[in-house]
């Protein structure tokens, strides 16, 4: 059997972080088993569904690197097929026409509430003789068993049992002939060949009602896996007060997609003690049994740690490409050709200990700035008269050095020893002169990236900056 999973968001806004994790779990499960990962846009709510929201969802999935198979399915476009199934159920006697009006249903529920009885509506038309049907608008309702139980064998939640007398005869087709969401989901999943429905546990109760459609149509049931929702660090339902909710915000904050995938995979799922892993490992390891039942908590420190790990082990060219995408998403100026070349040369020394792209860019200031370098306030403190004198004395020694790391380290070490000091005393002025910042990559890395001519130019300008 070929595994087929799907992600089916409603296009009413951005791609939520919880939806992104659901998509990731479906993607990992399918990709790790040589299966298919399908995408369906559940756009039946025409009042709230927008093309802009659909575009935002597709863009979010693209940024996360969650590629789908085949064309994107529009649920709204399949409404005739949904109605066809409702009429098929009607023809089989597994659904019926209900002529009860909204006023009649509400009157029934009001009376039930006053009597302290169940407000679950039982249609008087369920077993009515078709000959008695009036010439009036009607809905089509599913004929749900009135006794027994519906059992959901869920891969995450375990065995969930619901008494059938707790389930109503749900509407399949409204009086205007339009299908309801619950019917559309089942028909789409069946027609798309979905074998595994992996979704949030807020849909768990829906599964019991949707199973009624499957069994009434004699269709095989999918494997269900209802995953817990994501909570904020305080254990409460995720909301705007906890910070970023849409994946587009995470891209604009400068988190790398690989780190985001790693973090989301670990958010509610685990593989032993493994924290940092590649996509290939995640696809090989991911299974439904590793998903916990308790809600996962968002932890930004852990997210930053994992993102830092992925930046450090990322491919240099790929990181530069994603960095440029970050700049575009965040509305920041694009790199010039010279800056891009500098970033490409510097990337090996930039990606260590940078947790986000803004941090990486801050470390890259030495290749992004022009000469003369303007030091910030912290760096300026390292360029007093004594420090500038040291730079002036050191520069001639560097001018005659071969431009290798070993030689540069040797020259500065000998210079420090001859002047009765330690390299740590030279590091601050060198950082300030080369980059204008106090927190930078190694001064030797910066010299090698900048090259002999540019490095000596900056050191000379810094040494002369105090002279009037």
UniProtKB/TrEMBL annotation:
Which sites bind ATP?
Answer: 240
GO annotation, cellular component aspect: cytosol
Location of the Aminoacyl-tRNA synthetase class I anticodon-binding domain: 326-462
Q: Gene3D superfamilies per the record?
A: 1.10.10.350, HUPs
Q: Where is this motif: 'HIGH' region?
A: 9-19
UniProt-listed Pfam families: Anticodon_2, tRNA-synt_1c
Entries under InterPro entries matching the protein: aa-tRNA-synth_I_cd-bd, aa-tRNA-synth_I_codon-bd_sub2, aa-tRNA-synth_I_CS, aa_tRNA-synth_I_cd-bd_sf, Glu-tRNA-ligase_bac/mito, Glu/Gln-tRNA-synth, Glu/Gln-tRNA-synth_Ib_cat-dom, GluQ/Sye
A single GO BP annotation from the record?
A: glutamyl-tRNA aminoacylation
Family according to the record: Belongs to the class-I aminoacyl-tRNA synthetase family. Glutamate--tRNA ligase type 1 subfamily.
Query: Under which name does UniProt file this protein?
Result: Glutamate--tRNA ligase
Which UniProt keywords are given for this protein, alphabetically ordered?
Aminoacyl-tRNA synthetase, ATP-binding, Cytoplasm, Ligase, Nucleotide-binding, Protein biosynthesis
- Where's the motif 'KMSKS' region? 237-241
GO MF entry, a single one:
zinc ion binding
What does the record give as the reaction this protein catalyses? tRNA(Glu) + L-glutamate + ATP = L-glutamyl-tRNA(Glu) + AMP + diphosphate
């Amino acid at each position: 059997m070929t595994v087929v999973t799907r992600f089916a968001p409603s296009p009413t806004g951005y791609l939520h972080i919880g939806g992104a994790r659901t998509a990731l779990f479906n993607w990992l499960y399918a990709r790790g088993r040589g299966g298919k990962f399908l995408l369906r846009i559940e756009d039946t709510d025409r009042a709230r569904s927008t093309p802009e929201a659909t575009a935002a969802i597709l863009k979010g999935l693209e940024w996360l690197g969650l590629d789908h198979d085949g064309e994107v399915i529009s649920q709204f476009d399949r409404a005739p097929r949904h109605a066809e199934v409702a009429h098929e159920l009607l023809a089989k006697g597994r659904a019926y026409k209900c002529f009860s009006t909204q006023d009649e249903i509400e009157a029934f529920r009001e009376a039930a509430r006053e009597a302290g009885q169940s407000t679950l509506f039982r249609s008087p038309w369920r077993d009515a003789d078709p000959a008695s049907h009036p010439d009036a608008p009607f809905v089509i309702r599913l004929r749900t068993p009135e006794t027994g139980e519906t059992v959901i064998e869920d891969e995450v939640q375990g065995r969930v049992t619901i008494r059938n007398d707790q389930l109503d005869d749900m509407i399949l087709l409204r009086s205007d002939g339009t299908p309801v969401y619950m019917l559309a989901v089942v028909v789409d999943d069946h027609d798309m060949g979905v074998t595994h429905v992996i979704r949030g546990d807020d849909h768990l109760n829906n599964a019991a009602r949707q199973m009624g459609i499957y069994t009434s149509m004699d269709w095989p049931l999918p494997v269900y896996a209802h995953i817990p929702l994501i909570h904020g660090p305080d254990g409460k339902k995720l909301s705007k007060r906890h910070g970023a909710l849409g994946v587009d915000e995470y891209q604009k904050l400068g988190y790398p997609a690989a780190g985001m995938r790693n973090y989301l995979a670990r958010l509610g799922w685990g593989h032993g003690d493994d924290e940092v892993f590649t996509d290939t490992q995640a696809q090989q390891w991911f299974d439904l049994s590793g998903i916990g039942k308790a809600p996962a908590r968002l932890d930004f420190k852990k997210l930053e740690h994992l993102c830092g790990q992925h930046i450090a082990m990322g491919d240099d060219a790929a990181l530069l490409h994603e960095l440029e995408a970050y700049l575009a998403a965040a509305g920041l100026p694009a790199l010039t050709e010279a800056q891009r070349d500098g970033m490409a040369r510097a990337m090996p020394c930039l990606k260590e200990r940078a947790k986000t792209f803004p941090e990486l860019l801050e470390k890259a200031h030495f290749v992004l700035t022009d000469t003369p370098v303007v030091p910030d306030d912290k760096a300026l403190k390292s360029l007093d008269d004594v420090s500038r004198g040291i730079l002036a004395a050191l520069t001639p020694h560097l001018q005659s050095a071969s431009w290798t790391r070993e030689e540069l380290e040797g020259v500065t070490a000998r210079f420090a020893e001859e002047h009765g000091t330690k390299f740590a005393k030279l590091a601050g002025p060198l950082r300030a002169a080369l980059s204008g910042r106090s927190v930078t990559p190694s001064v030797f890395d910066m010299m090698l990236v900048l090259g002999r001519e540019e490095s000596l130019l900056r050191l000379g300008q810094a040494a002369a900056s105090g002279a009037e």
